[in-house]
Specification:
Blueprint: E1 2-4, E2 7-13, H1 23-30, H2 36-44, E3 48-50, E4 53-54, E5 67-72, E6 89-92, E7 96-101, H3 118-126, E8 140-141, E9 150-156, H4 159-170, E10 175-183, E11 190-194, E12 197-199, E13 207-209, E14 218-227, E15 231-238, H5 245-252, H6 267-270, H7 278-282, E16 289-297, E17 304-308, H8 313-322
Amino acid sequence: MSDVKGETLHTLAVEAQQAGTRLDRFLADSLPTLSRSRLKALIEAGQVGGADGPVTDASRKVRAGESFVITVPPAEPAVPAAQDLSLTVVYEDDQVIVIDKPAGLVVHPAAGNPDRTLVNALLHHCGESLAGVGGVRRPGIVHRLDKDTSGLLIAAKTDTAHASLSKQFAEHSIVRAYRAVCWGVPFPAEGEIAGSIGRSSSNRKKMAVVRQGGKEALTRYRLLKPFGTAAALIECRLATGRTHQIRVHLTSIGHPLIGDPLYGHGRAFATALPTPIRPLATAFPRQALHAFLLGFHHPTLHNLLTFESKIPHDINALILSLDQL
């Protein structure tokens, strides 16, 4: 490895036992501090050179004795601005940071939310300790929570951490559990919801369980407490991590989340609520979903870290109201 004008150069030779391996797999095995997505981007950008020039086909099979030079450009300035926003930091070291995200906080800047996001807050909080993860100086967000879902979220502060956490998410070894309040009482009391999730054909803002296309998804749920027949407190654990997965899967079995603006129409169940309680549930201002448990293996220490977050006040107040049934 060498540094040239801020660029990092890696020269790799293919050993006999590595022959026949896809280029992207060979690079990932040889450079474990870089994530697969980062390596793919480098290949597509022509930053991986072989004997005959740039190699841009990630699926190309490598041959024994070949050499490749990988040019990793210096981190670019972050586009999002660092902003001094309040953060609840549950854990932090030189590799990772775990945040207890409040409802209403967007993770990434996007149309409609150009700033005042978790990314802006992390840029301010981490400062110069934040490495060039993914090619720019920004927090290494490896998973997301919807704007109005509260709870635990982890970000990588180095390429090593980003690669490790990305691998753990890909292998579904990250422990993620949620508390949720849904309409109705799921039956059986414990089970699995399987179904590929893709963009809804009728509403592009929504996701749906689809027969063709989409991505395989699996959610495990467990009934914690029924509130009559109108609602229930449940625990959900993700075996996969798709957009709106819990919200979509619960809706697909007829038990959408209370307060969900896209999927949560529980009018039939709401009629079973007493008049004083009904408005509290039907007007709940966000999906009643909280990521209360997060567990992962530390990228460099390799020990298992587990964190828990208390149910926030708004969902707890909803539970106490429904508990009067």
